[in-house]
């Protein structure tokens, strides 16, 4: 069995920490609610925020490893000469989607900062939650660009085993 080099990517650590925090917060809230009939006020607000961070950080990891859900049928039946064009097209669509997300996310974060909006649950500044959207969108753009370079150079993806 070939050994793979360890993956040290900040977004992988961020996604892991976000998932751990969601689990700890939710478990703590359930225990407190059932033992005291009270509930932590911050759990829903933090859990939703952490879920967004987890989703975008995980998407960046998947983009780097070429493991996004996609239709591979076209890739399998295209001649090798046309594959590079398809790879560039996939990259352009990804950059367009996440570029728009980064643009509007940063505009939204700036508006939240300028308007001094507060979160409804805890009254924290809303821009603290929103700023992660454009930052992680840029991380995804960087990772899909790295993936494109690898694919254009002919680097083969490790086989992904789908177990059911």
Automatic annotation (TrEMBL):
Pfam families (UniProt xref): DctQ (PF04290)
Compartment list: Cell inner membrane
Domain (Tripartite ATP-independent periplasmic transporters DctQ component) ranges: 22-153
Example of a GO cellular component annotation carried by this entry: plasma membrane
The keyword Cell inner membrane belongs to this UniProt entry's keyword annotation: yes
Keywords linked to the UniProt accession: Cell inner membrane, Cell membrane, Membrane, Transmembrane, Transmembrane helix, Transport
Membrane topology classification: Multi-pass membrane protein
Biological process according to GO: C4-dicarboxylate transport
GO MF, one example: transmembrane transporter activity
Alphabetized InterPro entries for the sequence: DctQ, TRAP_DctQ
Segments passing through the bilayer: 12-34, 46-64, 85-106, 126-145
UniProt similarity note: Belongs to the TRAP transporter small permease family.
Record's function text: Part of the tripartite ATP-independent periplasmic (TRAP) transport system.
Assembly and binders: The complex comprises the extracytoplasmic solute receptor protein and the two transmembrane proteins.
Protein name per its UniProtKB record: TRAP transporter small permease protein
């Amino acid at each position: 069995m070939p050994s793979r080099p360890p993956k040290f990517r900040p977004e992988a650590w961020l996604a892991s920490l976000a998932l751990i925090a969601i689990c700890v917060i939710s478990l703590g809230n359930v225990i407190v609610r059932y033992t005291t009939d009270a509930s932590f006020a911050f759990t829903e607000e933090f859990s939703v925020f952490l879920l967004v961070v987890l989703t975008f950080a995980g998407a960046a990891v998947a983009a780097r490893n070429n493991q996004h859900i996609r239709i591979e049928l076209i890739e399998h039946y295209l001649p090798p000469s046309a594959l590079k064009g398809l790879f560039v097209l996939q990259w352009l669509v990804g950059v367009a989607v996440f570029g728009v997300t980064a643009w509007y996310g940063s505009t939204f974060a700036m508006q939240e900062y300028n308007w001094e909006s507060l979160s409804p649950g805890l009254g924290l500044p809303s821009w603290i939650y929103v700023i992660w959207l454009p930052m992680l969108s840029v991380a995804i753009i960087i990772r899909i660009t790295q993936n494109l370079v690898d694919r254009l150079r002919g680097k083969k993806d490790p086989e992904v085993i789908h177990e059911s």
